[in-house]
Amino acid sequence: MLRLVQGAALGLGAPLGWQVLRWLFDLTPIHPRYELVLNVYMAVGGVLVFAVFGYHLGRKEQRLERLTLVDPLTSLYNRRYFELMLETEFARHLRDGTDLSLLMLDLDHFKQVNDTWGHQEGDQVLMTLAGILRAGLRAQDVAARVGGEEFAVIVPGVGGAGALAAAERLRIAVRDGIFLVGPGTRIPVRISIGVASTERLAVSGPTELFRLADDALYRAKGLGRDRVEPAWPGGAEDQLGPC
């Protein structure tokens, strides 16, 4: 829309340019009626041509921006956008004192899926997982694919207990989800999740919050997979408490 308005504004310069040329070269004015028709023609034609050009330019810019911010396979955000948003939300946390939580998710034994069914079917599993994430998150949450089978979710305005509850809901949704490979074969898919929250941890910046959530994810892997692991001690009580 902005490019369309800019193009229309440029189109209005056509009759103005004609008047400047007349003044510079001392051109003889034509009949007033024809002069008016000429100016209207240049104004309308210029506005239409430049507005259409601006509209298409704006659409191309939007598509290019989407390509730089969105993962092409899952249509979730990519790591670049995730890092930008994590910095933005952490700055909001420092400014307003609001809680900020981060979930790190990883598919369990995903290599077996690729080895058994092939990478194309593995990609289908990733796309199905992305759909489950989108359906299970709030509008203000930011889900991104940050690695091959690793995903992250920024959860603004939510403390430790709420983040653990959200992570557990996602784990169950994936466990109960329908993942099809090959000729309609359903396979079980599980995820491990690490959770970090500024409400429970003294965090110096977005990079440390990411590291803490990632460390918790790997602890979940080491403790048997298909589980949610908090980055702070005593997190098990939070998961048993009310959601």
The number of E-state strands comes to 7
Tally of contiguous helical segments: 9
Query: Stretches where pLDDT falls below 50 for ≥5 residues?
Result: none
**Secondary-structure element sequence?**
HHHHEHHEEHEEEHEH
Strand content: 5-15%
Strand order of the largest sheet: 2-3-1-6-7
Kindly provide the radius of gyration, computed on alpha-carbon positions and rounded to a whole number of angstroms.
27 Å
Shape: elongated
Mean pLDDT over all positions? 84
SS-based class: alpha+beta
Report how far apart the termini are.
Answer: 43 Å
What is the percent of helical residues?
Answer: 55-70%
Largest pleated sheet: 5 strands, mixed
Task: Describe this entry's structure for a reader.
It is built from 9 helices and 7 strands, in the order ααααβααββαβββαβα. It is of the alpha+beta class and about 240 residues long. The model has no long low-confidence stretch (mean pLDDT about 85).
Strand-helix topology:
Blueprint: H1 2-11, H2 13-25, H3 32-69, H4 79-96, E1 100-107, H5 110-117, H6 119-136, E2 142-145, E3 150-156, H7 160-175, E4 179-181, E5 185-187, E6 191-197, H8 206-222, E7 228-230, H9 235-240
Parallel strand pairs: 6-7
Antiparallel strand pairs: 1-3, 1-6, 2-3, 4-5
Helix pairs in contact: 1-3, 2-3, 5-6, 6-7
